[in-house]
Amino acid sequence: MRAGRSREGFREIRAQEAALLERLLAREFPGSAELREQLRTISVAEIDADGSLRLSTRASIRAAVRRRIPVEASYVDRDGVRVHLLLHVVDGYLDELEVLREDPAPVMNRPADQAELDFDQA
User: Fold this and answer.
1) Looking at residue 111, what DSSP letter applies?
2) How many helices and strands, by DSSP H and E, does the chain display?
3) Residue-level pLDDT, tens digit, the chain, 122 residues
4) Residue 95, Ramachandran bin (φ over 0: left; ψ between -120 and 50: alpha; else beta)
5) Which residues pair with 61 in a beta bridge?
6) Those residues with Cβ within 8 angstroms of residue 101's Cβ, 6 or more apart along the chain or in another chain
7) In sequence order, what are the residues at sequence separation of 6 or more whose Cβ sits closer than 8 angstroms to the Cβ of residue 90?
């Protein structure tokens, strides 16, 4: 676990959440292999009802990503509003999966349940 990060409030990742993160990290970009390795020891804490997650890994391998958000995807919610998935990396470690809807309404279709994602260029 990264120094300074308490494990309080964290739980094991659910299969659907892990599959979503694996899909986000399946695309090749600088640091993606190391981030996939970090997934092996990931724990999560729920941030909000939309599906945003705080991420904590016990892996010691650091990813040399070029940007704090090296990969972003989106999907269209049930009512036609786009929902964005932003994967945050801090100091080379997975830190947060941010779920951001383009309006203030709550997310209707959970991110982990999405069959299709549109990937934005990083």
Assistant:
1) G
2) 2, 7
3) 454 455 679 999 999 999 999 999 998 999 999 999 999 999 999 999 999 999 999 999 999 999 999 999 999 999 999 999 999 999 999 999 999 999 999 999 988 888 889 997 55
4) alpha
5) none
6) 50, 77, 81, 82, 83, 84, 107
7) 68
At which residue do the structure tokens 């945003």 appear? 52
Residues in the chain: 122
- Within 10 Å of residue 1's Cβ, how many Cβ atoms? 15
Q: Cα–Cα distance between 38 and 54 in angstroms, integer?
A: 14
What tokens does 78 get? 């049930």
Which tokens go with 115? 């069959």
Residue ranges of alpha helices (H) inside the chain are: 15-25, 32-39
